[in-house]
Amino acid sequence: MLTRLKGGQLFDPAQGLNGTVQDLYYRDGVLIAMPDLGAVIDVDYDVSGKVVMAGAIDIHSHIAGGNVNTARLLLPEQHRNSMARKLGHAFSTARWSTTETGYRYAKMGYTTVVEPAVLPANALDAHLQMADIPIIDTAGLAILGNDDFLLRLLRAKASQNQINDYVAWTLQATCCLGLKVINAGGANAFKSNMRSFDLDDIVPDYGVSSRHILQTLQRAACDIQLPHPVHVHCNNLGIAGNVDTAIATMEAAQGLPMHLAHIQFYGYGAEGARGFSSAAAKLIDGFNKHLNITMDVGQILFGQTVTISGDVIAQYSRRNDATPNKWVMWDAEDEGSGGVVPYRYKEKSFINSLQWLIGLEVFLLAEDPWRLFFTTDHPNGGPFTRYPHLIRLLMDYDFRLECMAGLNQEAVAMSLLKDLKKEFTLYEMAIMTRTAAARMLGLHDRGHLMPGGIADIAVYSFKDNKEEMFSAADLVFKNGELVVKNGIVQTPRNGTTQTIQVPFDAKIKRDIQAYYDRFYNLSLDNFKVDAISFRQTDSERFVRHNAGEPYFAGQASPK
Amino acid sequence: MTEITEVPSPFCGIGTDDLTIKVDGVLLKVIENGCAVNTPAFEQPITDMSARVDGKEVSLDVAIARAAAILKDTSLPVIGGCATDVNGMRGLLALADRCGAVVDHINFTGARNNFLALQDSGWMNTTLAEVKNRCDCLLIVGTDLEAFAPRFFEHYLWNKESMFLDDTSHREVIYLGTAPSGDASTSPKGKKARVFECATEDLPEVVAVLRALVKGQLICATAVCGIAVTDLQTIADKLIAAKYGVVIWAAGALAYAQAELTVQMLSEMVKDVNNQDTRCSGLPLGGKEGDQTANQVCGWTTGFPARTRFSSGFPEYDPFLNDTNVLLANGEADALVWVHAFNVNALPPVTTVPTIVVGRSGMTFATEPDVFIPVGTPGIDHVGHAYRMDNVVAIRLKKLRDSGLPSTAQVLNAIEQALQVR
User: Fold this and answer.
1) Residues 362-391, chain A, touching B (beta carbon < 8 A)
2) Cα–Cα distance measured from residue A337 to residue A350, given in angstroms and rounded to the nearest whole number
3) A167 CA: distance to closest CA in chain B (Å)
4) Which residues on B lie below 8 Å from A70 (Cβ)?
5) What is the dihedral of CA A529, A535, A540, A541, to 10 degrees?
6) DSSP state for residue A209 in the 8-state scheme
7) What is the DSSP letter of A218?
8) Is the model's pLDDT at A425 over the cut of 60?
9) Which chain B residues are within 8 Å of A95, Cβ to Cβ?
10) No. of H helices and E strands in chain B?
11) B302-328: b or e for each residue (b if 16 or more CB lie within 10 Å)?
């Protein structure tokens, strides 16, 4: 079936299209070049005067897994419902549910979302949940770096090849797309009663440092050709003066590709009367010097949210800030840990105001949307449903000033945000949330409007108020299927989960089996992600992508 | 006749997956690694193959049509039991949404003790492999652990090797409240558990004093409910001296009013131990009758645990008002759907409202329900997923035999579809 979107203004950085008026065609869910004259157009949408972009991609959003479900069950009062669903749209108004996740992402024009923290032991749980997120595609990043098996290998000075095999096996066993490292060694050390963990701290019992764990995993990600660079949650999250940790981590990357997640939480200096200051300029200076580094921001937005993280050291350290006063920490299967701490970001708070200012400073100072990504670390900085508000903050200087007037003025006085007049363009937004995001994840079939891509398309009406503009797309197509019209989901459909295909020496599986027999109570054969959906077979559910060169934005950027 | 090894169990909650089962047609025999919980649950014979309406055998389609007809004109149907696998719960929740039902898991009144504590102040918990590899001191409060899960000690305490303990037989095991019914807690080298008994309903008082001692408060009394304060001091000292203490309880065993306060007291005590420069974690027992599965799936599908109603067109959680027995007793419910794919002895409550039972083949009823649809058991008759007591691990259940019985999910989806057509 041939479909045409007629007369829209295309914003597709992959082709350098910056508002170019051009018809867009797809056949059977795949974008195609202009068909021959006389080809019968089965469905025609007039989108003249409207903005046409590829479907948006969220590279870091906690949408599934153990911590996410714990947050749901911990905080029933935070997501009470009041609106009935339409018949045939079961659970679509159930706040914080998997169904609502798919609906609300789709409504904004998002078509792919990455869950960035899949603990291997919890992978099946994460996939069972993701299979129930309708419409959008998903992917997971598998967490390593606190697991006993890896640390044991490092203690025994195992070869890099053996570690590479273990990483590759883990990605296959967990059906994940990439590799995540969270405060390497920190969760393991927490179980041995350490309460802080820096880059050069040593994990008790293993004698290996956080730096060594991180570098070994980064090397593995490069060696096995993961397109998405190792996705790193650094040490010392949220601590004054931690910009030095972020810079040290950039240096630890030794020129190899590395992604630093929710970097706003590391843009902190220790200056000023309160010993807490913006270090965004220093952070960006480091970023500009390290072209191998990509980052996402993790902007905070004011209001109630819940923080969920595998960085148990950070979460435990701020348990007394829990608002409301209840929290969960858990240790998990000798692989990692987690913490769920509800939190309210307040305009009147000096610290929260500064966090808000720092995040925006990072966005505006970086000036390279090919290496800097748009996130709130949902839900940690704020829920993804508030992305349109953040888009407006980036695209509207006057609106920023207006918002700054309501903040803690001591913090505002310490920030250079009021002097940053840059306003992101639609083209830059399309780079950050589409083209660069897809490339960095190694998902070549999306994030652009070129022939061969899947027809994931979002159509918006131009509006001065960008929050309104991006709150509800006029039309959203997922694999060519019209899923949203005038901001309303038409029919739920099944998404797919993106995975990576990387080879490994089968011997590693025998080693892991022997290890499981010694220390676990689960046979390795039973540690498998399968039969996860009631409506799809696994072969329909899981889409495999090929290994390849890791994303290196220094080259990817056409500017 | 075949032998199937590495069979995982959905019955014991602790993720046992090393059973060997002999399959002879539809007859199962556990020949290795059985226990008092798992063996009878696997060996339960199939009795019914066909569905019944008003006590008469009918085709599956007829039974489904009848179930849909009953549900069609209800105002507040209740779906109780809710004991099935992940797909079964998916189907159950879709049906509940369709007909505006209340969903209530059979164990929820017990599990509520945990949920109320969680939702009021939270906790610091651990998982089974951490117990196996790190725990050097286990405090068991108010439950006979080996009766709950006969192989718990063999699997998680007396393992030959562990990551961080040189000799697992040196672990401290302490019972508070209920005494053990056997010797499973005695280490392979003969080290016996210490047992401090009190009546279950005295636990609130005993646990409060224990927490006070952990915090270093002065206690003037010399004994609490029959336990010497010096003994409680010993427990407090051991928890603080341990590198990785674990406190275990079974919410359902705390069968007295406001038992959630006991769970909260224990959970806060665990936090207190962590404030004294060492590690300690809680570990609530569960995982039976599909309880973790129901709460997990209901959690991501609705945002709430499995005592949630859909009568307003959106999920509403209430741990008291949505109780099946309360709704039946008050005359609020006008139909009952009872779903239990694991346990033939878990029968629906006696009621006069129209009743549909989607139950494990082998159930016998004092009063025949309006509709009975026998279903297969996840992990025996079909594959599936079930959550272990610690939620982190979902167990992949195997199909062991071809019984021809439908799955819970198939039946509930068919009823939901039938309602959709109308």
Assistant:
1) none
2) 30
3) 20
4) 391
5) -40
6) E
7) H
8) yes
9) 303
10) 13, 22
11) bbbbbbbbbbebbbbbebeebbbeebb
CA R_g for chain B: 23
Taking the C-alpha atoms of residue B409 and residue B327, their distance in angstroms, rounded to an integer, is 25
Min Cα separation A128/chain B (Å): 8
Residues of chain B found within 8 Å of residue A101, distances taken between Cβ atoms:
none
> What is the mean predicted confidence (pLDDT) over A542-554?
90
10 Å Cβ neighbour count for A40? 7
Residue A449 near residue A63, CB atoms below 8 Å: no
The answer to whether the CB atoms of A125 and B383 lie below 8 A apart is no
Chain-wide mean pLDDT for chain A?
A: 96
Q: Which residues contact B108 (CB under 8 A, 6 or more apart)?
A: B291, B305, B306, B307, B319, B323
Interchain CB distance below 8 Å, B316 and A81: yes
Is B90 near chain A, with CB under 8 Å?
Answer: yes
Put simply, the chain B residues between 2 and 61 with a CB less than 8 A from any chain A CB are 6, 8, 14-18
Q: Which two tokens stand for residue A261?
A: 């997640």
DSSP per residue, A528-550: ---S--SSS-HHHHEEEEE--PP
Beta bridge partners of A21: A9
**For the segment B268-321, what is each residue's pLDDT rounded down to a tens digit?**
999 999 999 999 999 999 999 999 999 999 999 999 999 999 999 999 999 999
Judging contacts by C-beta atoms under 8 Å, the chain A residues touching residue B155 are 521
For residues B72 and B51, give the distance between their C-alpha atoms in angstroms, rounded to a whole number: 20
Contact B296 A85 (CB under 8 A): no
Contact, A295 vs A375, CB < 8 A?
A: no
Work out the number of other CB atoms within 10 angstroms of the CB of residue A462: 12
A81-132 per-position pLDDT tens digit: 999 999 899 999 999 999 999 999 999 999 999 999 999 999 999 999 999 9
Of A64, A193, A331, the CB nearest to B277: A193
Q: Which residue of B has its CA nearest to A525?
A: B6
**Amino acid of residue A519:** F
A206 CB neighbours in chain B (<8 A) are none
Nearest to A327 among B122, B156, B316 (CB): B122
A213 residue type, one letter = I
Instruction: Nearest by CB to B94, from A69, A90, A124: name it.
Output: A90
* 8 A C-beta contact, residue B102 and residue B333: yes
Which domains are seen in chain B, by residue range? 47-107+289-421 (3.40.50.740), 111-284 (3.40.228.10)
Q: Which residue has the tokens 């995540």?
A: A180
Contacts of B343 (CB under 8 A, 6+ apart): B41, B83, B289, B360
Give A523's contacts in chain B (Cβ within 8 Å): 6, 17-18
Return d(Cα B183, Cα B196) in angstroms, integer.
15
B7-18 pLDDT, tens digit per residue, is 999 999 999 999
What is the number of other CB atoms lying within 10 angstroms of the CB of residue A74? 25
pTM higher than the cut 0.95: yes
The answer to whether the Cβ–Cβ distance between B300 and A64 falls below 8 Å is yes
**Closest to A443 in 3D by CA, of A499, A378, A374:** A499
Give residue-wise pLDDT tens across range B219-259.
999 999 999 999 999 999 999 999 999 999 999 999 999 99
Give residue A151's identity as a one-letter amino acid code: L
φ, ψ dihedrals at B174, nearest 5°: -130, 130
φ and ψ at residue B258, rounded to 5 degrees = 55, 35
Nearest to B385 among A70, A124, A525 (CB): A124
Q: Quick one: closest CA in A to B245, which residue? A: A191
Tell me the residues of chain B between 113 and 132 that have a Cβ less than 8 Å away from chain A. 115, 118-130, 132
Q: Nearest 5°: phi and psi at A319?
A: -60, -30
